[in-house]
């Protein structure tokens, strides 16, 4: 046992996982892995043993869950260890994505206890075999470079850090620790069920690799550390390029394609992978390499406007010289049809953005406007009331150019001005009582309107974006 304790001390020092002054929550499920972690931490020498407590979630998913809960509770009581537990009762289980929902519930509870107990660290019992399985699964499935690097020794979580101090320990060694120290545990019966992807790797593929080399798990751990070291060194370069290429707009991200084209393709892939890792994966989305390639292809596509759907409800939309990544909420935002009469000397708030109003030319509302306000006088005295502001419709046409009037489709107008689809859907149309289009605020005015405030007009249309 002493050999394993010394190894853990070396890992704590080498990875700087925690200090004696730390307050550590140990996530214990009742299996051999987490019970071995608990036993090792118990026996750490005083200079390495932090103040610690145990957290456990009873998921009520398996028959042996009750026994696991009892084992941990009784062990902590007999050893004088602080024990926090929560139940996730069957009536609260969702009908789909049960595994993901269980994980979210579990870690939400852990984060809550971290705050209440003022813990600095949450420790889980991920080990070398878990690392081997994870890297293989992500390689086969297709993942980002950061994903292929596997499980990190630590990452930010809650008010502190989530740490994995047993990543250098193999599964067999954890069984040995429990046996030597007489630590009780309960084997999860579902570990042998091949319906789960990880179990198929664990029970079929990993044994083949270990038959070739018993140190396979250790070598995969070395690979993980080497790759994470490389990523750490190049991260400042990638982050700097990311901030020069991407701009945050509300909940969305905009990529400048002109600047993007000037970058080497290798840097492009790394920056895009950084964006995915920092913005999508933390939100719980499983982003695969194939989607990264699809985004790269979209950026190179010759079509001025094109879009693709991404994981978790995100969308990537190419709009001329921009590539816009819309968050799930923004992607769902659809501008429905609207139509509202413009009452004299009153504002109408538009559903997409801004407001518009019809005013007497000498009305106070038409004075002291913001610099970006648009104010146009109605030249045609025969324009029939009421004026209507509405959403754009198929076939809309507007008469342009007072000197040489001609009719143009509003859709063609947007194409010529290279207006993105989202902006086209937001656009509003102002018509008179006969349905003639007087104005497309922000884009075009008809021959019946004038910007010249010197021209005598009875009415003015004012648009503030």
Please sum up the structure shown.
This protein is of the alpha+beta class and 465 residues long. It has 15 helices and 23 strands. The protein is 40% helix and 22% strand.
Q: Could you explain the architecture of this structure?
A:
This protein has 15 helices and 23 strands. Strands 3-2-1-4-6-5 form a 6-stranded mixed sheet, with helices on both faces. Strands 7-8-11-10-9 form a 5-stranded antiparallel sheet. Strands 12-16-19-20-21 form a 5-stranded antiparallel sheet, with no helix packed on it. α2 (32-42) packs across α7, α5 (128-141) crosses α8 (197-212) and α5 crosses α9 (216-245). It is α+β, with helices and mostly antiparallel strands and 465 residues long. α2 links the parallel β1 and β2 (51-58). Helix content is 40%, strand content 22%.
